[in-house]
């Protein structure tokens, strides 16, 4: 019987096996990757800070002028809405903003005027309210999964532009953001949520069906944007495959929505056209997809 002899190497006066060298090398490589990702994240967060400082100025201006702002964060599941909201509000004065994320309607709310549960959360003078999903739930999730009747959906689509026009006419600054992510990237983010115990709470039963109903959501998105984009309450589409870019560009959109005092003119407020698309342009792009391929790409 032949006994396999382990080859040993001399490292700083110590005998080390090839297997041990490989193990140490892999560990070192993984450590470098982790450090590299952490450094990249730190750099990205630093890039946001000058713009986050501008958000504080904007917030102060709204407070001083008693103006009201509503920001809607809509889009597919795992498109990056929550992470963006956290970056937008990170350094804001907590007394003058609120994040509203409503659950499914109660039995009492089902008997009320549809907008009633949202209106009770509207901002007072000098306040910003950020809706993590909004009344557009009726046009998206409720419509796709038949959580509302066809009449309820039709009533919403026929009336929402008038509702929003009235809000703007009464002086509310309304920013509507729709986060668009690719199907492959959504699947990757779902897989991460499923395997990460710190993110598993984000994965709902609806999320698990999002990939299967991808085309249904795409068609619903098209109809929603086309019918509810208006001059007074336009949609802004955020391509969010790159989360960091999406967060930065979202903050720029918000800063550009109002001419506040003390703006730092040395910052670049120009929007990245690869990330930020107007609702009207998005419809043109989707119409072109239908014309050239017979279907929507995403």
Quick recap:
The protein is α/β, with parallel strands linked by helices. It is built from 11 helices and 8 strands.
Structural account:
With 298 residues, the chain is α/β, with parallel strands linked by helices. The chain has helices spanning 18-65, 81-89, 107-110, 116-119, 141-144, 150-169, 183-195, 205-210, 214-228, 243-255, 279-293; strands at residues 8-11, 14-17, 68-75, 97-100, 128-132, 172-180, 235-239, 276-278. The strands form 2 sheets. The protein has a 6-stranded mixed beta sheet, with helices on both faces. Helix 1 runs parallel beside helix 10. It is globular. The mean pLDDT is 91.
Largest sheet: 6 strands, mixed
* Cα end-to-end separation: 63 Å
Order of strands across the biggest sheet? 4-5-3-6-7-8
Element string (H = helix, E = strand): EEHEHEHHEHHEHHHEHEH
Low-pLDDT segments:
none
The Rg value, from CA coordinates, equals 24 Å
Sheet-strand content, in percent, reads 5-15%
Approximate shape: globular
Helix vs. strand class: alpha/beta
On the 0 to 100 scale, the average pLDDT is: 91
Helical fraction: 40-55%
> How many DSSP-defined strands?
8
Question: Number of helix segments?
Answer: 11
Helices and strands in order, then pairings?
Layout: E1 8-11, E2 14-17, H1 18-65, E3 68-75, H2 81-89, E4 97-100, H3 107-110, H4 116-119, E5 128-132, H5 141-144, H6 150-169, E6 172-180, H7 183-195, H8 205-210, H9 214-228, E7 235-239, H10 243-255, E8 276-278, H11 279-293
Parallel strand pairs: 3-5, 3-6, 4-5, 6-7
Antiparallel strand pairs: 1-2, 7-8
